[in-house]
UniProtKB/TrEMBL annotation:
Intracellular or extracellular location(s): Periplasm
Sequence ranges of Basic and acidic residues compositional bias: 143-157
Annotated organism of origin: Gilvimarinus japonicus
Protein origin, superkingdom: Bacteria
InterPro entries attached to this UniProt entry: Cpx_auxiliary_protein, LTXXQ
PANTHER family: PERIPLASMIC CHAPERONE SPY
Positions of region (Disordered): 124-157
N-terminal signal peptide: 1-22
Family: Belongs to the CpxP/Spy family.
The protein's name in its UniProt record: Spy/CpxP family protein refolding chaperone
UniProtKB keywords: Periplasm, Signal
Bias-annotated ranges (Basic residues): 133-142
Chief location category: periplasm
Family annotation (Pfam families): LTXXQ
Length: 157
C-alpha cells in the first residue's frame, strides 16, 4: 500500500511538473524575458542600466539552462515515466532522478525571478505585478483558435 501511494505521488508530481514546462500547466502568463519587451520596459520606465542588467541575467540563465525543443523534452520525459510504470518493480531512484531534473530547473527559474526583481525598484515591481495580473485575466478570458473559451468562467448563452 505504501509503495503504491509513493508511486502515485511521484507519478502525479512528474506529470504536473512536466506539463508545466510544456506550457500546459499553471504558470505565469508572462515569463522573465517579458522584461526585455520594449513595451514592458517602457511601461516600467526601466533605465538603460536596468535593461543591461536584466539582459545579462536572462542570458546567463539561458546559457545554463537552454530551452531546446520543449515538445521533444516533454515526450522524452513521458516515455521515461511510462517505462517506469511498465516495469515489474518500481525504480524509485530513477523516478527521483526524473523529478530532480525538473526541481533543479524550477529552482533556477525561481532564482532568476528573484534576481530580476532585485533589479527593479519597489514601484516597478508593483507595476509589473499589475501588468501580470492584467495579462493573466486576459489569457483566462480569451478564446482559442477553435472559438472555445480557454479558461475562466463559462460563457452564458
Amino acid at each position: 500500500m505504501k509503495k503504491t501511494l509513493t508511486t502515485l505521488a511521484l507519478t502525479s508530481a512528474l506529470v504536473l511538473t512536466t506539463a508545466a514546462y510544456a506550457g500546459n500547466g499553471p504558470r505565469d502568463m508572462m515569463g522573465p524575458a517579458a522584461l526585455l519587451n520594449d513595451r514592458v520596459a517602457e511601461r516600467l520606465a526601466l533605465t538603460d542600466d536596468q535593461q543591461v542588467r536584466i539582459s545579462e541575467l536572462i542570458e546567463l540563465h539561458r546559457s545554463q539552462y537552454p530551452q531546446g525543443d520543449a515538445k521533444e523534452a516533454f515526450a522524452q520525459k513521458r516515455e521515461a515515466m511510462d517505462a517506469l510504470m511498465t516495469e515489474p518493480e518500481f525504480d524509485e531512484s530513477a523516478a527521483r532522478a526524473l523529478l530532480s531534473e525538473d526541481t533543479e530547473r524550477r529552482l533556477a527559474g525561481m532564482k532568476l525571478r528573484h534576481d530580476l526583481a532585485q533589479v527593479l525598484t519597489d514601484g516597478q515591481r508593483e507595476k509589473l505585478e499589475k501588468i501580470r495580473e492584467r495579462q493573466h485575466k486576459k489569457g483566462r478570458n480569451s478564446k482559442g483558435r477553435d472559438g472555445e473559451r480557454r479558461g475562466g468562467k463559462p460563457e452564458r448563452y
